[in-house]
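seq:
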Amino acid sequence: MKKRDICVLGGTGFVGQHLVAALSSAGWHVRVLSRHRERYRELLVLPNVDVIEANILDEGVLREHFPGAAAVINLVGILNERHRGDFQAVHADLPRRIVSACRLLGVPRLLHMSALNADAATGPSQYLRSKGEGEDAVHAADLAVTSFRPSVIFGPGDHFFNQFACLIKAAPGMLPLACPGARFAPVYVGDVVAAFVKAMTNKSTCGQRYNLCGPAAYSLRELFEFTAAVSGRRCTVIGLPNALSAIQARVMGLLPGKPLTYDNYLSMQVDGVCAGGFPDVFGITPASIESIVPRYVARKGDPFDEIRHHARHD
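struct:
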């Protein structure tokens, strides 16, 4: 590897594909480790990008591909478990293995994707506790670490507004909605990616943990109603009380693609909003959902295509 080489884990995911393209455009040589190389041919044609099939959960594999890297970026994350213990393995154990490999091989820089409200001790869900554990592990290392804690991320190819649109299209004019009052400050994927790229060359970001939010906060009900409007659909949202929200989450967690799980429900017990604006250090004015989402939310097609897609790739 050369001095401008970066090894990216999770580079084939939603944020990862946007980030890899941005790093390539910025002149970095990017090595993407993925379990399924041939699924992501759009990355294979990017200049200065190598996609390597690898089991990233194996520390021996990490040691094989980290040598000479100027930095490692960890974007790996899951919203739902297929098997008990997956959150721990992916969000907590993997970051520890990454730190170990970086230390052994002299990789000086690590950028880590965490989550807003991640907290190993007080997170209300397994997702947030495991994310907090991983975040604490990387910051305990003697490396130049920067972590990012975004609210829900949106943009072309997202699992958030696209899935909302699918559920609205499939609904018979009305939709019972769990946790309608839960609040989020959706942040544009392009702004998240820009923060990562800028952090690569800004030493003042080392050792910092950045909350990333968009310019406005919305209730889940408002986000559903916004999605219905831009999709050109009429759909009455019926907000469920807390007890029924928990039941709906357990039922929907059994469906293909798991549109909502009980652990997701627990995560929504704390609002996904930031106390301040987008961190000044990055010089970014965050984009609003109103300026971006109407460009990509589909108005046609099979309402279950997006859910099936994520069921195959989760």
